[in-house]
Amino acid sequence: MSAPASPTSRGEHRDEVDFVLTDDGTIITLIRVRGASAPTRGPVLLAHGAGMRAESFRPPAIRSVVDVLIDDGWDVWMLNWRGSIDLPPVPWTIDDVALYDVPAAVRHVTGVTGSDTVKVIGHCQGAAALSVAAAAGLVPEVDVVVANSVSLHPVLPFFARVKLDVLLPMFRTGEPYVDIAWGDGPEKGVARITRNTVRLAHPECKNPGCSMASFALGSGHPALWRHENLDSATHDWLEHEFGKIPLSWYAQMSLSHRAGRYVMVRGYEALPHRIADAPPQTDARFTLLTGDENRAFLPSSQHRTFAYLDDAQPGRHSLTQIPGYGHADVFVGRRAHVDAFPYIRYALGR
Ligand SMILES: [Zn+2]
Fold first, then answer.
1. Domain AB hydrolase-1 spans what residues (predicted)?
2. Which pLDDT tens digit goes with each residue over 150-187?
């Protein structure tokens, strides 16, 4: 598809916000984003990562995935699932998001648009929740899943595993959330100790939010992006795009990395205890993406899910490892519209 004469930018987005009540009584939100003209193609739902929010998909200083989707004619819906930093903090797990938030969001979008199908794009734990919901047969309306970084098989780097094993007991002293915004907060006690420890461990960057994000979500310096992929405006902006991540999720990740796949922890009947033990209950076509320098979830995370999907439905799914990229720079990188988004555009349009 050729580029539009006048590409959409953040200042031209017009947002409509819908509140959605899930079956377990949680309020989540959907932001429908319009550009200068009405969409000509079907709905696309975006699900953000852990400790982030819908807004994280559209850094103001770059050509964002939202701009690109609008210019391609898609009807863009950004989801704030219950882990969004724009919603009141709750001790969420992937179980809750996959069973309640994803189906509620998909049904809201089909209800409002009249479309029978929805294409979904997820980053990090948004990608995992979408993938788990699809594989469990909870969202038959979803015909395309684009998942960045991780989908069904989280593989955590060594130091991230140490964090899970060492920090979990520490935080069990009563602090229910790791707050990435601790980077610049006035807190005392555990928050202050954590913040100062993180500063010592991450001398590579003076931005406290960047260092806390590295600490909380991965292993490496920095863990979530390669600095050379970010422009300075986006790097500064990212400091305010992260917030609380509950220990309930860290506990689930600890179990899941040991099992080599997501393990459900709530005991909901509609979800299998161990994801990917049985064939996927969906016809959706998966496009799995990851940066080859991903230090939050190793690229082998996506390789394992691809092997599982391809075994069940040979030749239907794809896996792309993007050279020179990490975890979140696949969406917030200054050249992501050139290096990463073409894979997303192809997945949606084929
Ligand atoms: Zn940094």
1. 43-167
2. 999 999 886 666 666 656 665 666 677 877 765 555 55
